[in-house]
Write a structure and sequence with these properties.
binds adenosine-5'-diphosphate, D-amino Acid Aminotransferase, Chain A, domain 1, binds magnesium ion, alpha+beta, 5-stranded antiparallel sheet
């Protein structure tokens, strides 16, 4: 993470530390630096996954480029300027336009999973929308749903009803972001499906900059989405996911109460998880694998 005095020397100021990414301001830019940290059950694990930060950055990069015709985005570039010699950020840095993030997380769901499955199982509805009876966990929805949540500063994001979301954004902006989120999801899921990946659900964020509304944050990554291998898709239960499945399975098998500190991960789980993230990048954007620096600990 570089220490503060070293960063200050190069004009960088830490503005936010997320579970996975660190955000810096540099001149008039916002820098998103994806670390190798991994979280599960809302807890940062003590064991990093080598290369995960680079892989996540490259996956978002692929999507930003791919989806640009549908929505302008935050991206200024991915290269370190020559005057900032932090070589270890190569491949994990996104230089972005700083925006004012909209106060909602734009969740889109194409399949019944996670909290949506729980809500459906107990009420027959998802985000207030009545769904047909008899759906199973993991079933595909006939129409993708826009199910925004709050952007909690601490703790869990909470679901918003359409009228609450409208109140937060105003009617016109709400209509615009819901339509845009659904379009982005549809384009993303089609592209991913051609590569053997189901996008069960995902979360977009938008930011305002002057007159513009930009797609910000990360896009359709394993950290912001449920990505399922199509070949293993079998509705009627929880689906194996592309990334953290091994981690979740391991943690579920331990007598851990899901409160920090989380247990360390054994090497074999680290290696399998790293391989899954890498496989997601390789399937989606094989041309971007070359952006990941060659290091001994980055798998194959
Ligand atoms: N271009 C941008 N301008 C302003 N804020 C942004 C931009 N891109 C992302 N953000 C914000 O950065 C934060 C990322 O932090 P967080 O979600 O806590 O990190 P992580 O997902 O790595 O745990 C989010 O609040 C997001 O809205
Ligand atoms: Mg986040």
């Amino acid at each position: 993470m570089r220490n503060e005095s070293e960063r200050a020397r190069f004009g960088l100021r830490l503005v936010h530390q997320g579970k996975v990414r660190d955000l810096y301001s540099w001149r008039d830019e916002l820098w998103l630096v994806a670390s190798d940290r991994i979280s599960a059950f809302d807890c940062i694990l003590p064991t990093p996954i080598p290369g995960k930060g680079e892989i996540l950055t490259q996956i978002s990069r692929g999507w930003f480029a791919r989806l640009a015709p549908l929505c302008p985005n935050q991206v200024l570039g991915y290269d370190l300027p020559p005057e900032v010699p932090f070589r270890d950020w190569t491949g994990r840095l996104t230089r972005a336009k700083p925006c004012r993030p909209l106060p909602i997380e734009c969740v889109v769901r194409g399949y019944l999973a996670g909290s949506a499955w729980k809500e459906y199982a107990s009420t027959g509805r998802v985000a207030g929308v009545a769904l047909p009876q008899g759906l199973r966990e993991g079933d595909r929805l006939s129409e993708p749903l826009f199910t925004p949540t709050t952007k909690a500063q601490v703790g869990h994001d909470l679901p918003l009803t359409p009228s609450e979301a409208e109140r937060l954004l105003g009617t016109a902006l709400h209509a615009r972001v819901s339509l845009l989120s659904l379009r982005l999801y549809e384009a993303g899921r089609q592209y991913a499906a051609e590569r053997g990946i189901l996008v069960a659900d995902t979360k977009f964020e938008f930011g305002i900059r002057g007159e513009e509304m930009l797609l910000i944050d990360e896009v359709l990554t394993p950290d912001s989405s449920r990505l399922w291998p199509q070949s293993e898709y079998e509705p009627g239960g929880a689906q194996p996911s592309f990334d953290k499945q091994f981690v979740r399975d391991l943690l579920e098998s331990l007598a851990w109460n899901k409160r920090p500190p989380a247990p360390a991960l054994p090497d074999v789980i680290v290696a399998k998880t790293q391989a899954k993230y890498r496989e997601a990048l390789r399937r989606l954007f094989p041309e971007l694998e070359k952006e990941i620096p060659l290091r001994g600990d980055l798998g194959a």
